[in-house]
Design a protein that fits this description.
Helix content: 40-55%
Number of strands: 9
Structural class: alpha/beta
Number of domains: 1
CATH superfamily: Luciferase-like domain
Strand content: 15-25%
Distance between the termini: 11 Å
Shape: globular
Number of helices: 12
Length: 333
């Protein structure tokens, strides 16, 4: 129990669009959730860049971060993440420099190397598909240069951005970014909520190869996992049907809004699809407070992560708040 209380806890929000809901309502629900977890003592509230997905409204990630930061008071707000190949380092330095100036010491910048979408959409975002030689490490270092006050003598400077206090986190869903985060001495967040297969190997690589830097003196790991908490195990598993349907829609390439548990059709999944679904959701924690407490005690003891980031794809907003309340009771002091 003591280990849980020493573990930070936070939220990943994709601004999921629910069936029958307008985008304005989606964004209001995102802000309401952020305000709620801010009051509960969560560490951070991250929003993720995705494109060409009808059920996800977080495409203009920096705009949504500003909206959430402006409507909350304490919690850190950031990206989980910005997909850096879709942008220039200068534009991200300017955007997040602006956010940090508006909300000092409250903005995080999580960076990923994936497009956050399909290849056709990625090619349009990047004005071409010639990204075979994209160097993620060089772009991160370029971004750090734009944030640095030492860049003041350069012909190209970031205004706002130069001198901004914007912590950078490396995101990963495989072992590749674990090596990079360790090399650069930056905190590492693993996307276990949809790609759990290499989680344990990746965090071990990161910890064993970590090189202290001016940004971080020892490894810091965040595990993003699916959490569906409710007052009973049965209720939690019922609520989780919306989450499973969302992942099944990804597998079957059906881009559609999130549906209520009673409107799911999981029974139509083929054996192959069910196998894929099981693999994608292996790092899912579903149950009541007692069930989750035991599960997280075991998980954190084995993984030694510093922070649990909850991705909670729950259709009913009242049930989603109850989910966050239970999470805060498990990890809060």
């Amino acid at each position: 129990m003591e280990r849980l209380k020493k573990t930070n806890y936070s939220v990943l929000d994709l601004a999921y669009v629910r069936e029958g809901e307008t985008l304005n309502e989606t964004f209001k629900n995102t802000l309401d959730s952020a305000r709620f977890v801010d009051e509960l003592g969560f560490s951070r509230y991250w929003l993720s860049e995705h494109h060409n997905m009808q059920n996800v409204a977080s495409a203009a990630t920096s705009l949504l971060i500003g909206y959430v930061a402006g409507g909350t008071s304490r919690i850190k707000v950031g990206s989980g993440g910005i997909m850096l190949p879709n942008h220039t380092a200068l534009s991200i330095a300017e955007q997040f420099g602006t956010l940090e100036a508006l909300y000092p010491n409250r903005i995080d910048l999580g960076l990923g190397r994936a497009p956050g979408t399909d290849q056709l959409t990625a090619a349009i975002l990047r004005r071409g598909d010639n990204f075979m030689n994209y160097n993620f490490e060089e772009e991160i270092e370029s971004l750090q240069t734009f944030f640095s006050e030492e860049n003041k003598d350069s012909k190209v400077r970031a205004f706002p951005g130069e001198g901004a206090n914007v912590p950078i986190y490396i995101l990963g869903s495989s072992t590749d970014s674990a090596f990079l985060a360790a090399k650069l001495g930056l905190p590492y967040a693993f996307a276990g909520h949809f790609a759990p297969q290499q989680f344990h190997q990746a965090v071990e690589i990161y910890r064993s190869q970590f090189q202290p830097s001016k940004y971080l003196d020892k490894p810091y790991t965040i595990a993003c996992v699916n959490i569906i908490a409710a007052d009973t195990d049965e209720q939690a598993h019922y609520l989780s049907m919306s989450m499973y349907q969302g992942f099944l829609n990804i597998i079957t390439d059906k881009r559609q809004p999130i549906v209520a548990p009673e409107n799911t059709n999981l029974e139509l999944a083929s054996p192959e699809q069910k196998y894929m679904l099981k693999g994608m959701t292996a790092l899912s924690f579903i149950g009541c407070k007692n069930t989750l407490t035991q599960s997280f005690q075991e998980f954190i003891f084995e993984s030694k992560v510093n922070e649990i980031m909850a991705s909670s794809n729950i259709f009913d907003q009242k049930a989603k708040r109850r989910n966050y309340k239970i999470i805060s009771e498990i990890f809060g002091n």
